[in-house]
Each structure stands twice: as structure tokens, then as C-alpha cells.
Specification:
single chain; 506 residues; 4-stranded mixed beta sheet; 3-stranded antiparallel beta sheet; 15 helices; heme binding; membrane; Cyt_P450_sf; steroid hydroxylase activity; iron
Length: 506
């Protein structure tokens, strides 16, 4: 004898069976993005504090190490809270690629300092229609700049990069075989090169005003780190050391932008029939899109954008080069392999050029490995969900900060053999062709990836190729090990170090 079941209970059991069936079949997993999945797992994550969230638990010197430790415990997608701001941390390359391919993930979090101080301007901290339009403009400007040719048919941009690379090699050579600090040298030459590319202006080493601007940029990076908690608790800007740091940050930004505004005003009113820098093409784009460049709000946007382009490109190249040289000093065997390839392909009678890149696979692979090991932005730049976003087994709510833990991606032994070793061979296939695996993403991924990736890669190639073509790098004290501990910050910089550049015979 069967007992009739109530309709409500029958419906519940039927629905439960459907959910279980979906889970068993794997619907909503990383393979299909979960867009058709109507049941989502709760996000895992460590326990935080009331109000403060997880901020007190995160290493202020190397936050990526704390987040990586939690990723090993809670998996490739887990939740945190920064104060009252919800966040998810992604540490698997396929999940990061999936997330950043979705339009819902293209926002920027409304953080009080890093977003608020930009006043809704620029390109890095904005989203929506303004970001789409300005990013399109910047990419178009860079392409137009690359299309400019010299009388000999060479790219103007490539020629400019090569001239500045020659400058850094010449400055290395000034020191003979004595030890020297590479940091001020790299800072000046790379920043000067980017100033020429972005603003059409270069400066001498003894220009005190330009040196002051570089100091302001460095100061700004340090102050952003010092005021991180103000992002989540704006009231802290009025108390303790946060007050002084926040006021100094605003002051340094104002002074730097006044310097840039003078350049912009001069460039707006000069003849634009022969543009030669990003600023020239950008002004033309703004006119073409019927912006009133005399409007203070428009000029404010232009200054913020140009500062974003200059700062992000300079920092990426400077920091990656510093890490690359430190790793190469520790690995004379890799220096020898690069030098053998350079001598075989380029010879000793001329300098390497951009055109040699495809004929120098080991040198190119060394540059890629330097990018992987540097992990200059180990947490990526934070994204913000503009709407609910299905991802893997989870539903990421609207208004959630997304952190792409690029450090974990580049140090994951599941994707990289012996990830802590500097090993250029991992970027070469059996035929010694250069390959970039999908898990290599130093410039992030998707619609908000770094727009200057190509510029950074070829500049770093030329820098490393020229330096090792001319010199063998040595640590000052034989047998002393380089210090690979990073300086505190959200961009990872090596500690101050010195080296010797031993001139190679022709």
C-alpha cells in the first residue's frame, strides 16, 4: 500500500533532485562559466574581524603572500572583506581569463584614495563609457606613433627606444669595473624615454625641475601604500599618520599635475601638422571627438590620462628591468647563453635591434622569464563587478572587488616546473620557438589588460639584449647572494643593490 505524497513535498523533492543532478553533471563549473546554473556554491574564505574584515590579517609588506597562503587553503576562488567592501580573490589563470572576459567585471572599485583622488578622471581608475572611449583613443594614439617612420623607413618609436637604450648602456660603461647603484640610473633613463614618448620632451640629468617630478612620482607610490586603510575607512584621513600621508599625497599630486598642465597648454597651441608623441595624437583625438580642450574639466581628464600612461609604463619597465638584472647577476650561466646567442646572430660589430627579436629566441625567453619572476603587480589592478557575475561554481554579486592574484598564477607548480627558479627555457618549445603559455599574464588579461604591453616587451628586450651584448654583470662581492626580498608596496620593487658591469671585448 502506497501513501499519497503531498503536492508541496513532491515538488520539493523533484526540485532537489534536479539540483543534485546539475551538481553531479558539473553544470556551472569553469568549463561553461556557470551562466546556465541556477544553484551556486557559497564562496569559501577565512574568518575576518567585524567591521575591519581581513585587513588586520594581511601582511602589509607582502600582501600577495598572505593571499597566496589562503588560496592554497580555500581554492582558486575565495571571498574576503576589506573593511566593509566585499572582495573575491582569483588565483587560477583559466578562472581569471573567464572572469575578465565578462563585461560585468570591467568596473573599478570606488576606493576613497586610489579612485577618489583621481576625481573620476584618467584611464586606470575609471570605468563605463569614459573608460571605453579613452582606452580606444590611447590605443589608437600608440598605433599612430608606431606608424611614424624615419627617412630610412625605420619606426620613429623603435629608433627612440634604441637611442635611450644606447644611453643606459653608455652610462653603465662610465663606471668601468667599479660597483654602482643601478636604481637612479634606470629611473632617469626609463622615465626620460617615456617622457619623450608621451610628452615629446626629454631632459638632462642635472635638470632639477624634472628630477623633482620624478621624486614626486616615487613619493606618490609610497604614499598610496601608506594610506591604503583610508581606501576602506575614509575617516582615517583625519587622524594619526594617515592624515599627514593623505595630505602629502594630495599635495604631491597637485604639484605634479601643475607641471603636466604647463606641458599640455603648450602642446595644445602648437602646430599639430607633425605629431611626434602620444600627447600630440591625443589632442588631435580630443578635437576630432568634439571635446572643448579649453574646458577645465576636459583638461583635467587629459592630464590624468597622460599621467596614467606615463606612470604605468615607466613603473612597469623600471621595476621589471631592476628585477631582471638582479636575477641575471645571480645566474652567470644564463648570461653566457644569452651572450652566445647574441654573438652568433648579431655579431660584435653592431648593436642588437628590434628587428633581431625573432632571431634571438633565448634572449626573448629570458625577457619573458624576467616578467614572470618580477611579478611587478602581484595582485593585478582591482576590478569591480558592475552586475551579478556567474563564475565557476559561484555567483559573484554586483559591487564586489575582484583581485587577480597574478603572483599565485606565476608561481603555481601545477603550471610551472620549479617556479622559483629563473629558467628561460620554459618559454621555448622543442624547436626553440618562443611560446607564451596561457598562464603567463604579467600584463593581466581581457578588456582591461595593459594597453602598453607591446611597448614594454620590446623595450625590455632591447635593454637586456644591449646590456648583455656589451657587459657581463657581476655582484660586487664574490660569493655574496643577491637579496630577492621585495620592498613593501602593491607594486613589487627589489631592494637597493649594486653591481659591476664588466665590459666584454669586441
Amino acid at each position: 500500500m502506497t501513501v499519497p505524497m503531498k503536492a508541496g513535498a513532491a515538488a520539493f523533492i523533484k526540485k532537489s533532485a534536479k539540483v543534485v543532478n546539475q551538481v553531479i553533471k558539473g553544470r556551472g563549473n569553469g568549463s561553461n562559466g556557470g551562466d546556465n546554473f541556477n544553484y551556486y556554491h557559497p564562496l569559501p574564505g577565512p574568518t575576518g574581524f567585524p567591521v575591519l574584515g581581513h585587513l588586520p590579517l594581511i601582511d602589509s609588506v607582502a600582501p600577495h603572500l598572505t593571499l597566496n597562503k589562503w588560496a592554497r587553503i580555500y581554492g582558486p576562488v575565495y571571498k574576503l572583506k576589506f573593511g566593509l567592501i566585499p572582495a573575491v580573490v582569483l588565483s587560477d589563470p583559466s578562472i581569471i581569463a573567464q572572469a575578465f572576459s565578462k563585461p560585468q567585471s570591467t568596473g573599478r572599485p570606488p576606493l576613497f584614495v586610489t579612485t577618489g583622488i583621481m576625481e573620476g578622471n584618467g584611464i586606470i581608475s575609471v570605468d563605463g563609457a569614459l573608460w571605453k572611449e579613452q582606452r580606444r583613443m590611447v590605443i589608437h594614439c600608440l598605433r599612430q606613433l608606431e606608424d611614424l617612420k624615419t627617412a630610412q623607413g625605420k619606426s620613429d618609436l623603435d629608433k627612440l627606444i634604441e637611442e635611450n637604450v644606447d644611453s643606459i648602456v653608455e652610462k653603465f660603461g662610465r663606471h668601468g669595473e667599479s660597483t654602482f647603484d643601478v636604481h637612479p640610473l634606470i629611473r632617469f633613463v626609463i622615465s626620460n624615454m617615456m617622457s619623450k614618448i608621451v610628452f615629446g620632451r626629454s631632459y638632462s640629468e642635472d635638470d632639477s625641475e624634472y628630477s623633482r617630478q620624478l621624486d614626486l612620482c616615487d613619493m606618490g607610490s609610497n604614499l598610496v601604500q601608506m594610506t591604503n586603510w583610508v581606501n576602506y575607512f575614509p575617516g582615517l584621513r583625519h587622524v594619526f599618520h594617515f592624515h599627514d600621508a593623505y595630505e602629502a599625497l594630495k599635495s604631491s599630486k597637485t604639484e605634479h599635475h601643475e607641471f603636466l598642465m604647463r606641458i599640455l597648454q603648450q602642446q595644445i597651441y602648437r602646430k599639430r601638422d607633425s605629431p611626434s608623441a602620444v600627447i600630440d595624437f591625443y589632442i588631435k583625438e580630443m578635437f576630432k571627438n568634439e571635446y572643448n580642450v579649453d574646458d577645465p574639466a576636459t583638461r583635467n581628464q587629459m592630464i590624468h590620462l597622460l599621467a596614467d600612461v606615463f606612470g604605468s609604463a615607466s613603473d612597469t619597465i623600471k621595476l621589471t628591468l631592476k628585477w631582471a638584472l638582479l636575477h641575471l647577476v645571480a645566474r652567470p650561466d644564463i648570461q653566457e647563453k644569452v651572450q652566445y646567442e647574441l654573438d652568433s646572430v648579431v655579431g660584435r660589430g653592431r648593436n642588437p635591434t628590434i628587428d633581431d627579436m625573432f632571431a634571438l629566441p633565448y634572449t626573448t625567453a629570458t625577457v619573458l622569464e624576467a616578467n614572470r619572476m618580477a611579478n611587478v603587480t602581484p595582485l593585478g589592478l582591482p576590478h569591480w563587478t558592475l552586475d551579478d557575475m556567474p563564475l565557476s561554481y559561484y555567483l559573484i554579486p554586483k559591487g564586489t572587488m575582484i583581485i587577480s592574484l597574478l603572483y599565485a598564477v606565476h608561481m603555481d607548480p601545477n603550471y610551472w616546473q620549479c617556479p622559483v627558479l629563473f629558467m628561460p627555457e620554459r618559454f621555448l618549445d622543442e624547436s626553440r620557438n618562443v611560446v607564451k603559455p596561457f598562464q603567463f599574464m604579467p600584463y593581466s588579461y581581457g578588456q582591461r589588460n595593459c594597453f602598453g604591453e607591446h611597448l614594454a616587451e620590446k623595450t625590455l628586450f632591447l635593454l637586456i639584449a644591449h646590456i648583455l651584448h656589451r657587459f657581463t654583470l657581476e655582484y660586487p662581492t664574490e660569493g655574496e647572494e643577491p637579496d630577492f626580498r621585495p620592498m613593501p608596496g602593491f607594486t613589487v620593487s627589489p631592494r637597493i643593490y649594486k653591481l659591476k658591469a664588466i665590459h666584454r671585448p669586441n
